[in-house]
Specification:
Layout lengths: L8 H5 L3 H17 L4 H45 L2
Helix pairs in contact: 2-3
């Protein structure tokens, strides 16, 4: 298993939502468990911040897609209402 702190930002960007979420859960678990050095804890925290950003981007993208689909549906409903 690779360490959470060894991943590069480019690899982080390529993560899917579920992967990033699962890894973030593991990072939080490790931080809460304690027993790491200050340097390890800081590296885990930084990794967690990166993973949280990935999750946030995925969720914002999903929200935008949902909003667009709902707006498109509303437009189609309005167009159909204009027909004789």
């Amino acid at each position: 298993m690779t360490s959470e702190v060894d991943e590069t930002p480019d690899m982080t960007e390529a993560l899917g939502y579920e992967q990033a979420r699962d890894e973030l859960i593991e990072v939080v678990r490790r931080l809460e468990a304690g027993g790491t050095t200050l340097e390890e804890s800081l590296a885990l925290w930084e990794r967690g911040e990166e993973l949280a950003k990935v999750c946030r981007r995925w969720l914002e993208g999903a929200r935008a897609r949902l909003d667009a689909a709902l707006a498109d549906e509303a437009t189609q409903d309005e167009d159909e209402g204009d027909r004789p």
